[in-house]
User: Fold this.
Amino acid sequence: MKFGIVTFPGSNCDYDTFQAVVETLEEDAVMLWHKDHDLQGSDVVILPGGFSYGDYLRPGAIARFSPIMREVVQHADRGGPVIGICNGFQIACEAGLLPGALLRNESLKFVCAPIHLTVESSDTLFTSRYERGQQIVLPIAHGDGRYSADEETLDRLEGEGQVVFRYAPSALEAVEAYNPNGSMRDIAGIVNGAGNVLGLMPHPERAVDVLLGSADGLPLFESILQRVAV
Amino acid sequence: MSRYRVAVQVVPRRGLLDPQGKAVADALHTLGFGGVAAVHVGRHLVLDVDAADEATARRLTREMCERLLANPVTEDFEIAEVASS
Assistant:
């Protein structure tokens, strides 16, 4: 399977993602430049983390108009899998691939830490290798991760099982402090209605080996391999 | 074709949590400005737009706001001023 990883000016997790796919998952990966108009046969497109265009105006607001985004949106419209991680999640929301928006953290602080999550659904393209309700630990590193949408959208996301990851208390933390950014309904990751676009603030690509502190991100990539036949 | 200077204000939608505005309000209270009930922090953009007339400059700016300058999910915008320049 071939993963296409988009590099925008200011992306800084593109090579982490490449390493996770090539070294750990042992699958093919190709780096895609934001000015290109060719996904080079990628089966899965990943919009990686970083600070595309310096987060000018709003995170993701300018990257969504990068030339390659036209092909990424077409790929998603055809049902092709797309993963937006951190800044990639922000870009996916700005591009209309996912509902809602990601706002400045409630604390106004950039938060960089391993955090606890609950896998809310194992019935997606991206989470079949997890158990529903499973607690996992993934790192986050963001200043604008407060997922926000109107109540109607939130209810629909919940009702349709589109909330995939939620921040969760760990045994060691004060219960009121577990949500690192103040996101609505503790949302950390969602899928679109068709289920082929995932956006999440935590970094699964930074958690693919216990040497990195956690391997809890690996099943996310393995789930795709299992579900997307090539 | 004339050039118009257009001022646009983009503010967080009322009702949404605005931690920046709250931090500024808290600071103002600390300074003794107890009468400040709320602060909303947004963006002020100044555009120089070439257009046939003022109405066109205004329409183009509105389109820019809807497509890029404001996030329709979380922000409201207002075209504060259109002046010949």
